[in-house]
Amino acid sequence: MAINKNHEFEDLNGVKCAVVEKNASQQRVDFLQSLLELNGFTVVVVPSPPPKAAPTPKPAEGEAAVPEPSTPNPTPSTFTVGVTDVRFNVTNALMGRMLKTKDGHIVTVDYWQQKETVSNDTIPYFSKDEYIHSWK
User: Fold this and answer.
1) Whether 20 contacts 90, CB under 8 Å
2) Among 24, 19, 13, which Cα is nearest to 41's?
3) pTM: predicted TM-score of the whole model, two decimal places
4) Which 8-state DSSP code applies to residue 61?
5) Strand partners, 12
6) Fewest C-beta in 10 Å: which of 32, 67, 120, 132?
7) Helix (H) or strand (E) holding 29
8) What is the pLDDT of residue 132?
9) CA distance 7 to 28
């Protein structure tokens, strides 16, 4: 059981895993899987459980029950991504600068969130203008 929401564990395909991200799209899964495997982690991806449906209302007295249309099992649209190293924590990995891109740069928060296509690790995250506070 996780101590907080930042470090969750789950059994994915029968393997105890540290959860990296839940409800990830296929594009996001591809990005995370390639990045994490490049850094030496064994990645486990499983379909996310479908959202819980609201219970169908009971028909009023005298009304016939309408059968629900049967829908085929749709392909999952979101996935849960985990790594088999249960010590892995996304926040610690990013702030501790432990992950690297395929060209050898440190993975930044913006690169992890796919806001940047290239990891610009020459300026530390705490030196960017948006993070600097005036102390004077």
Assistant:
1) yes
2) 19
3) 0.70
4) T
5) 15
6) 67
7) helix 26-38
8) 52
9) 19
- The token duo for 47 is 């379909």
Q: CA distances (Å), 98 to each of 22, 51, 55, 82, 118, in order?
A: 21, 34, 46, 17, 17
Q: Map residue 81 onto helix, strand or coil.
A: strand
pLDDT tens digits, one per residue of 61-87: 766 665 655 555 556 689 999 999 999
CA–CA distance, 80 with 136 (Å, rounded to integer): 46
- Hey, what are 6's tokens? 């930042």
Structure-token match 């050898």, residue found: 104
Token pair, residue 27, equals: 């594009």
Which structure tokens are listed for 42? 């064994």
**Virtual torsion, Cα 82, 3, 53, 59, nearest 10 deg:** 160
Locus of tokens 């005298």: 62
**Residue 44 near residue 12 (C-beta atoms within 8 A):** yes
Residue 20 three-state SS: strand
